[in-house]
Amino acid sequence: MRQFLFLSFVAGIISFVLVRNSFYVTQDAAIKKNKLLLLIGIMSSQNNFEARQSIRDTWLYLTEQENVKYFFLVGKKICNVPPEDRIYKEACIEWTVDMKEYSEFSTGEVDAVKMRIFPSYVGVTFLVHYPIVIRSMNLLRDYVTVTDGFVQVSLLNAVTREKIVSATFSNNENNSGSDLLEKTVEPYILPKGFEGQVIVELIGNKSGNISLDHSECWLQWNNGSGLITFLQLIRDVNGKPVPFHEMSCIHACLTFTLHERGELQLHVAKRSDRRKSWENEIKLLKNKLLKESEEKKDILFLDVVDIYRNLPRKLLHFFKWAHLNEEFSYLLKTDDDTFVNIGEVLRTLKVARQEQSEETFTHPETKLYLRWWSSFREGWPVHSFGKWREDNYCSETYPPFPCGAGYVLSKDLVQFLGNNAYNFLYQDFQGEDVALGIWLAGVNPLRYSGDKISCTWACDGTCNPKACNRAELSVDAMYETWEAYQNCSNLCGCHWK
């Protein structure tokens, strides 16, 4: 009897092992037959024909015998505004300027008839579209009277925080009878693309910010006939600015003139010619993209205008498309200036998939496998100015986010992003890598880590022979990296150890 029980116990163990192994064999067979190990999305701008070809000629060769599929991610739409006529090159917004015969312009105009009660701010940030010359600083007379102290109006470089010019006003000087007090300053040229701040502060014994209460607003916003664009409002000189809106008030303004009126007049006169020329370029670009797509069959056109500020939307469209149209275990996102050591990446992912299979079998209650693999930036400051200006995320720092040059997401993460793409599309964060960190902050996915990872992801052009990738490469450098990889399996060159 005991022998029978022992044999039954042994038979049970053997049966369990056979069933377990059968499960993995069956699952692995199903994966090989129906599911990709890796889906690769390579972010690419429309004009980057040579960059795309350099990748086809190099590391993408290594995917041919693997269970991998790749696409270059290209925006379907072309910005119809000529580059010279955009407010800034990262966005498809047209810059229009009204060439009036004014000798002077101002960022604000006094209009007692249109006086309204609006929230009061200590300053405003603006962007210069054509070189201007600052001539004077201005302050509302009523504000000096109410504060009964010294008030300083300053112009700062918003990026460097350097003070350019300033003027101090006091109630003792309020003898002109004008609604707007004016002080001439040394002329100073602000170049195209300059981001400036006008700041109003109390100085002396009553130093500090002006009141943020609602106040009578006599100054109406004026963009100088299109020469500047207001970007942000400042509640506190040490705080984060908020996006600009018209229902706001500041008590000071600048007076300025054009630096070269003749050149601007010529620019405006040639607007029609530039538009016609750009329309022809768009036709040529569309035809060239269509030809490349038909020949290579590896371009995924996504429903966005292909510009920098739309990269988060472009990425979301890819996640949604991938979720609805492909079966895969993992998704890799990279850029068209990045060489990926795909062999090492796949080696790690094969181990990860096997571990996932075991985890699913031993813990069937685990329904989601939310993981990502990259190098992560943590405590990254939110920029208020420049190319990476962030208007829609209110914290001082971003949540952890992966480096855009290379990261891997599990299928369940892509499914989450694809299902929520509609909600995320309207948040308009400034970059696709920081946006991904924000979208996934609430999910808090696990990071791949441990001894079984065969390489680490690089964020920039710094070369590491043990990296999964090498970023920020020119077309020539891509081919040089490929040659080094073929000769000695080293992305940095055969002289590296």
TrEMBL record:
<dbReference type="Pfam" id="PF01762">
    <property type="entry name" value="Galactosyl_T"/>
</dbReference>
<dbReference type="InterPro" id="IPR002659">
    <property type="entry name" value="Glyco_trans_31"/>
</dbReference>
<keyword id="KW-0735">Signal-anchor</keyword>
<dbReference type="GO" id="GO:0016758">
    <property type="term" value="F:hexosyltransferase activity"/>
</dbReference>
<dbReference type="GO" id="GO:0006493">
    <property type="term" value="P:protein O-linked glycosylation"/>
</dbReference>
<dbReference type="GO" id="GO:0008194">
    <property type="term" value="F:UDP-glycosyltransferase activity"/>
</dbReference>
<keyword id="KW-0325">Glycoprotein</keyword>
<keyword id="KW-0333">Golgi apparatus</keyword>
<comment type="pathway">
    <text>Protein modification; protein glycosylation.</text>
</comment>
<keyword id="KW-1133">Transmembrane helix</keyword>
<comment type="similarity">
    <text>Belongs to the glycosyltransferase 31 family.</text>
</comment>
<dbReference type="GO" id="GO:0005783">
    <property type="term" value="C:endoplasmic reticulum"/>
</dbReference>
<keyword id="KW-0812">Transmembrane</keyword>
<feature type="coiled-coil region">
    <location>
        <begin position="268"/>
        <end position="295"/>
    </location>
</feature>
<keyword id="KW-0175">Coiled coil</keyword>
<protein>
    <recommendedName>
        <fullName>Hexosyltransferase</fullName>
        <ecNumber>2.4.1.-</ecNumber>
    </recommendedName>
</protein>
<keyword id="KW-0472">Membrane</keyword>
<keyword id="KW-0808">Transferase</keyword>
<dbReference type="GO" id="GO:0000139">
    <property type="term" value="C:Golgi membrane"/>
</dbReference>
<keyword id="KW-0328">Glycosyltransferase</keyword>
<keyword id="KW-0256">Endoplasmic reticulum</keyword>
